[in-house]
UniProtKB/TrEMBL annotation, chain A:
UniProt entry tagged with the keyword Membrane: yes
Protein's membrane topology: Multi-pass membrane protein
Keywords from the UniProt entry: Cell membrane, Membrane, Transmembrane, Transmembrane helix
Name of protein: Nucleoside ABC transporter membrane protein
Cell location: Cell membrane
GO cellular component, one term: plasma membrane
Any GO molecular function: transmembrane transporter activity
Domain of life: Bacteria
Residues passing through the membrane, by range: 6-31, 43-62, 68-89, 96-114, 141-163, 190-211, 231-258, 270-288
Pfam families: BPD_transp_2
InterPro entries recorded: ABC_transp_permease
Organism: Yoonia sediminilitoris
UniProtKB/TrEMBL annotation, chain B:
A Gene Ontology cellular-component term: plasma membrane
Signal recorded as keyword: yes
Keyword Transferase appears in the UniProt entry: no
UniProt name for this protein: Nucleoside-binding protein
Secretion signal span: 1-30
Family annotation (PANTHER family): ABC TRANSPORTER SUBSTRATE-BINDING PROTEIN (PTHR43208:SF1)
Residue ranges occupied by any ABC transporter substrate-binding protein PnrA-like domain in the UniProt entry: 37-315
Key words, A-Z: Signal
Coiled coil: none
Superkingdom classification of source: Bacteria
InterPro entries in the cross-refs: ABC-Purine-Binding, PnrA-like, TAT_signal
Species whose genome carries this gene: Yoonia sediminilitoris
């Protein structure tokens, strides 16, 4: 059956972990990157993620189709984003405060509506095996790539291209960098931000559906251990660049696999420390790449934290 | 903290009392005495396919009893929150019998709250009541390590790689006893078997449990069990990696019908109804209650289709020995996994030996560390 790989398990597990764990980080951070590029911060994505996980699982269970589950999660995520966007368009409303309220609302609603769906088993999303070339079962298992991961990767490239060289990307960037300039161009900043927040919410919902429909693949109230919040932080780490979001999500997923894997090869002392690896890594990268002169490079000008 | 925990419920109950007792309609019997209010507090959701569900099934049995009302609260953290929940139940629901069911509630939360309410009985699961602690506190638990020992026997027969795996939450005595028992059961079949343990550090962390299960499968473990609050993720992930699974807390066979060997389950319904009946009859529950398979505190899941005849025979024979009482899974000659002697030849710790409840070692053959 399984082959004894010795220490080769570690890099393999990091790759496997990066593929398995990164998808929710990726979708939430892409959604947040879009929202923040338009000049708003949506901290509510953790709640959207959890609600997306619940609604995706419920829809998949009720319809028997995991893809309809993903669709339902995207729609419910968009609704949350829309609500956030609309409330924040009212005068003198702070987007961060609204986001925190939305986060708690999303989790509360998900727990409330999710009760009947903890027990049933919903169909899971399919994955594609890229390990056909190997006879080693561990390699095959690590290279089981879910379709949503691939979609997320394509989405990251598409968003990067959109920001760089399309009209839509330009509009979002202008609105995010200067409300006055956007108005002078005849754009409607509030509308653009509402749309960007709604689409960002839809992404986060899909990230939640990945959690409940693929990995770990079931709905319960502890499904998210703060991935939504960490992903919001990853956006700043990735300097609002979708391609960097992809890299940051992979890094985070891979580092998260380190704790369990080290224990499995016998490095069992101090596992609490290894579990902190993703956070230590984040701190390390931030310190290494920090610079007093370009601390806010890439930050949208209208963001409430940069103003 | 010297300020007593303040809760919304407590505030409401105080103001409601001012507004007049009629504000809170009380259920009453024809002869005027109010039903006994029993409170259950869970650390997680009560339908988690695991620890909390097992307790909630016991609570459901209590709910069906005559003369009893049940109040329940789930997702209560092992912090000052549980003190607030207990105070709320006592002050607002007039609860006289409380079941705070999570290990971490005991010290300091139950021990601090109990002296303030001498007329309320606190029945804590998994704690270790000892002389000198408040007398209105009781501890009860079951020898579920024996269930993991039996799990281990089916695992020992099922494994082909001679490596079995254990996803564990925290290195507390009950978890360590389960890990050790699982391996020692398997070693009754083949003394070459080793058990890889991975601690996740929390009672419920879905993604980390899935990662731990994958890491075990990568390391070659082909039978996996766990001690986390909700074993659903471990069971589904392990079965997805083509490993056999042994259940824990509740029956998880619907999650992996082909791969499920057996499982160690709690059987709280009989225990809880018995305790509530004692209180209804005006009696006192013992401060320290333990029981095993023979006492109906725990039970085993029906054996799955993958269990061989040889495995079934050894399982049933060992189960009969345990039912007869005084069975010792931890017996000498036995060392821990860093070489210290646990028990010399001829020595052993029977299932009801109190020394097992302060276990702080992993036995030889377990790959892992308690810190």
């Amino acid at each position: 059956m399984e082959t004894d790989l010795g220490l080769w398990v570690i890099p393999l597990a990091i790759i496997g972990g990066a593929i398995r764990v990164s998808t929710p980080f990726l979708f939430v951070s892409l959604g947040e990157a879009l929202t923040e590029r338009s000049g708003r911060i949506n901290l509510g994505l953790e709640g959207t993620l959890v609600f997306g996980a619940m609604s995706g699982y419920a829809a998949a269970y009720l319809t028997g189709s995991p893809w309809l589950g993903v669709f339902a999660a995207a729609i419910s995520g968009a609704m949350f984003g829309l609500l956030h966007g609309l409330i924040c368009s009212l005068p003198k409303v702070n987007d961060i405060a609204v986001g925190i309220a939305m986060m708690i609302l999303g989790m509360g609603l998900a727990f409330y509506f999710g009760k009947p769906f903890v027990q049933p088993v919903a169909p899971n999303l399919p994955s594609i095996g890229f390990g056909w070339w190997s006879d080693v079962p561990q390699v095959r298992a690590a290279l089981q790539v879910n379709v949503l991961f691939l979609i997320g990767a394509v989405l990251a490239v598409a968003m990067w291209w959109m920001f760089r060289s399309t009209r839509v990307g330009l509009i979002v960037r202008v609105v995010g960098d200067s409300t006055d300039a956007a108005r002078a161009m005849g754009l409607r900043p509030a509308l653009v931000r509402i749309c960007a927040t709604a689409v960002g919410g839809a992404f986060a919902g899909v990230g939640g559906a990945y959690l409940s429909l693929y990995y770990p693949g079931s709905w319960n109230e502890g499904i998210s251990s703060g991935q939504g919040l960490m992903a919001v932080a990853l956006v700043i780490f990735a300097r609002w660049n979708p391609l960097a979001c992809f890299g940051a999500a992979l890094l985070f997923g891979g580092a998260g696999a380190l704790g369990p894997t080290l224990q499995s090869v016998g490095v069992s002392e101090g596992y609490y420390l290894f579990f902190a690896a993703p956070y230590v890594l984040t701190l390390g990268v931030l310190i290494v790449t920090s610079s007093p002169t370009r601390a806010m490079t890439g930050a949208p000008g209208e963001l409430s934290i940069t103003k | 903290m010297s300020i007593p925990p303040f809760s919304r419920r407590r505030f409401l109950s105080g103001t409601a009392a001012l507004a007049g007792a009629t504000a809170m309609p009380q259920l009453a019997f024809a002869d005027g005495h109010a039903p006994l209010s029993v409170g259950f507090i869970y650390v997680g959701p009560k339908d988690d396919f695991g620890y909390n569900q097992a307790h909630a099934e016991g609570a459901a049995a209590v709910k069906a009893m005559e003369g009893v009302t049940v109040v329940e609260e789930e997702n209560v953290a092992e912090t000052i929150d549980v003190q607030k929940s207990m105070e709320s139940m006592i002050n607002f629901d007039e609860t006289k019998l409380l079941f705070p069911t999570s290990f971490g509630y005991f010290d300091p939360h139950v021990l601090e709250t109990a002296p303030k309410h001498p007329d309320v009985r606190f029945q804590h699961a998994a704690g270790l009541w000892s002389e000198g602690m408040p007398t209105n506190v009781g501890s009860y638990f079951g020898y579920i390590g024996m269930g993991q020992y039996l799990n281990g026997i089916t695992a020992g027969h099922a494994t082909t790689t001679k490596k079995i795996g254990f996803v564990a939450a925290k290195p507390i005595p009950q978890v360590l006893l389960n890990i050790n028992s699982f391996l020692l059961g398997a070693r009754q079949v083949d003394p070459e078997i080793t058990c890889q343990v991975i601690f996740t550090g929390e009672w419920s962390l879905a993604v980390k449990e899935a990662e731990a299960t994958n890491a075990l499968a990568d390391a070659g473990c082909d039978v996996i069990t766990c001690h986390v609050d909700g074993p659903k993720v471990v069971m589904e992930t392990a079965a997805g990696r083509d490993a056999y699974v042994c259940g824990y807390h509740a029956n998880q066979s619907p999650l992996a019908p082909e791969k499920y060997l057996t499982g160690a389950e709690w059987n709280w319904a009989g225990v809880y109804t018995g305790m509530v009946q004692t209180v209804l009859d005006g009696g006192t529950i013992d401060n320290f209650v333990r029981g095993g398979l023979a006492d109906g505190f725990i039970k085993m899941s029906p054996l799955g289709p993958a269990v061989s005849d040889a495995s079934r025979a050894q399982f049933e024979a060992t189960k009969a020995q345990i039912m007869a009482g005084g069975f010792a899974a931890i017996k000498g000659p036995l060392n821990d996994n860093s070489g210290n002697v646990i028990a010399a030849a001829g020595e052993g710790f029977a299932e009801d030996d109190i020394a097992l409840e302060s276990m702080d070692y992993l036995v030889e053959g377990v790959i892992g560390s308690t810190s």
